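Quick one:
INPUT:
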């Protein structure tokens, strides 16, 4: 896949899987929404969530974004997560709209309004693409 095609794929609203390591050195993987901006992935999570606590202890993370229809395709990212302030209401709405559409995003925002969150800004150290052979 060309760099332009990779950028277009990462701009799509695919649910990703974020992997972190917990305090007992066990893997923890969870589906997440993300924004991809300026070569970095931005994930919003609740303050004190397992993802947040794990990234505080060990910022090494991996993120897998895959296309689950034929032809199968995946991007596997290894990198470091930097913890930052939660998304602004505007950015949180933009993220929700990306995955839910306008109407559901507004209802989602009503449900999460006032909840504390942080961002995990993931800087890729390595990106590996997988082009599945099935269905080709």
């Amino acid at each position: 896949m060309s760099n332009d095609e990779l950028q277009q794929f990462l701009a799509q609203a695919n649910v990703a899987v974020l992997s972190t390591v917990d305090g007992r050195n066990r893997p923890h993987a969870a589906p997440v929404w993300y924004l991809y901006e300026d070569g970095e992935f931005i994930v919003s999570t609740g303050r004190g969530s397992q993802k947040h606590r794990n990234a505080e202890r060990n910022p090494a993370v991996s993120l897998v974004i895959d296309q689950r229809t034929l032809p199968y395709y995946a991007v596997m990212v290894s990198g470091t997560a930097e913890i930052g302030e939660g998304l602004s209401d505007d950015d949180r709405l933009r993220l929700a709209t990306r995955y839910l559409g306008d109407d559901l995003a507004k209802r989602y925002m009503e449900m999460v309004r006032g909840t504390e969150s942080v961002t995990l800004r993931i800087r890729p150290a390595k990106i590996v693409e997988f082009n599945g052979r099935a269905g080709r």
